[in-house]
Design a protein that fits this description.
By secondary structure, this protein is α/β, with parallel strands linked by helices. It folds into 2 domains: 169 residues, Rossmann fold; 198 residues, Dehydroquinate synthase-like - alpha domain (Dehydroquinate synthase-like, alpha domain), CATH 1.20.1090.10. 49% of the residues lie in helices and 11% in strands. It has 15 helices and 9 strands. The longest helix is centred in the middle third of the chain and has 23 residues. It is globular.
């Protein structure tokens, strides 16, 4: 059989491993003498920001720090960070933290180079060229924003999470140091880990997968299946933290070329309307969407189940596929993820509006089972 034509591009330069942060001075050489560091209050409290700024100063780089990034970051936060970048006359951005900080940093870099507002770049392919350089330093193992083309920003006026997607937003430098994830509390470890698992599974089973993305996604599933419980139970387990960060980055490399599926189409409205943490929303929705998708995934779910450690040899296809759904549900429960949307403050009356928003997502188009608005409403109801 002739393989399908596909392209795969990975423009980020990734430096990975325990102690990788020490490489920061040599990796920023030539980017400029002033930088804006974008982060959040938790990173300040953990002392990570001080480590980063000290290393930058040692490399002769000065600048300011914007440390007010919130979960599900807003247009207003992007504007405030961009204003500080302009005032500080920065040459590049250093984004330190989880996906929120990195998403803000990537969009600030676009605005710094091209002007306008976030809304000017909403969607795919709206960024006309490279932004100012971005150095991304993840401190969680989940979003993979350090290597993706996407930045997700909340528009409070519309109660909508918009995406800016372009190869020009991918950070030039990604420094992935598992030691920086040691400070994550168990709940954040669980939520970000399930986010990475959702990335990997949705990428593996969707309709536009390619051999490289599937290989990366499957290895990410395998790593998460054996490491997430350990990282949740003992945050000081550096081996587990290393495997989780590697899985997160690999899953992101995979999905940034293929998009995702119904889980992400539905989780973004949950963040936009009710500020549900992205990883928690994904984790609650994932087993429900997987069960609904099963009729289209009898060939892929057994592979997913095997990667998660399930014994599927000799099982009928529907039994092996069900094993994948059951394995995901058990993993989510074991790491303390709540099981119902109602427990996250979600209002049932908002489901029709959230379904409308979900249907605007390009992720719907690549879901393995063709999906209507009525299907999304029913899935929200089931998860509620």
């Amino acid at each position: 059989m002739k393989p399908d034509l596909f392209t795969f591009e990975e423009p980020a330069r990734v430096t990975f491993g325990v102690g990788a942060l020490a490489k920061l001075p040599e990796l920023v050489a030539g980017l400029g003498a002033r930088a804006l560091v974008i982060s959040d209050p938790g990173i300040v409290k953990a002392g990570i920001l001080d480590r980063v700024t000290s290393l930058l100063q040692g490399a002769g780089v000065t600048g300011d720090a914007f440390t007010q990034v919130e979960p599900n970051p807003s247009i207003e936060t992007v504007n405030a960070a961009h204003d500080m970048f302009r005032r500080s006359r920065g040459a590049f951005v250093v984004a330190v933290g989880g996906g929120s900080s990195m998403d803000v940093g990537k969009v600030v870099a676009v605005l710094a180079a091209h002007g306008g507002t976030v809304l000017d770049y909403e969607g795919l392919g709206k960024v006309p060229g490279p932004g100012v350089p971005v150095v991304a330093i993840p401190t969680t193992a989940g979003t993979g924003s350090e290597v993706t083309i996407f930045s997700v920003i909340t528009d409070h006026q519309r109660k909508f999470k918009l995406a800016v997607g372009s190869p020009f937003t991918v950070p030039q430098v990604a420094i992935c140091d598992p030691e920086l994830t040691l400070s994550m509390p168990p709940a954040l470890t669980a939520a970000t880990g399930m986010d990475a698992l959702t990335h990997a599974i949705e990428c593996y089973v969707n309709t536009v997968h390619n051999p490289i993305s599937k290989t990366l996604a499957l290895e990410a599933i395998r790593l998460i299946g054996r490491a997430l419980r350990r990282a949740f139970a003992n945050g000081a387990d550096l081996a587990a933290r290393t495997e989780m960060l590697l899985a997160s980055t690999m899953a992101a490399m995979a999905f940034t070329r293929t998009r995702l599926g119904n889980v992400h189409a539905m989780s973004h409205p949950l963040g936009g309307h009710f500020n549900v943490p992205h990883g928690v929303a994904n984790a609650i929705l994932l087993p429900h969407v997987m069960a609904w998708n099963m009729v289209a995934c009898y060939d892929t779910y057994p592979v997913v189940a095997g990667a998660l450690g399930e014994r599927v040899a000799g099982l009928a296809p529907h039994e092996a596929a069900q094993a994948a759904v059951d394995a995901v549900r058990r993993l989510s429960r074991d790491v303390g993820i709540p099981e119902r949307l109602r427990d996250q403050g979600v209002n049932r009356e908002a489901i029709p509006r959230m379904a409308d928003d979900a249907m605007k997502s390009g992720n719907i188009l690549v879901n393995p089972r063709a999906t209507s608005r009525a299907d999304i409403v029913a899935l929200f109801e089931t998860a509620f």
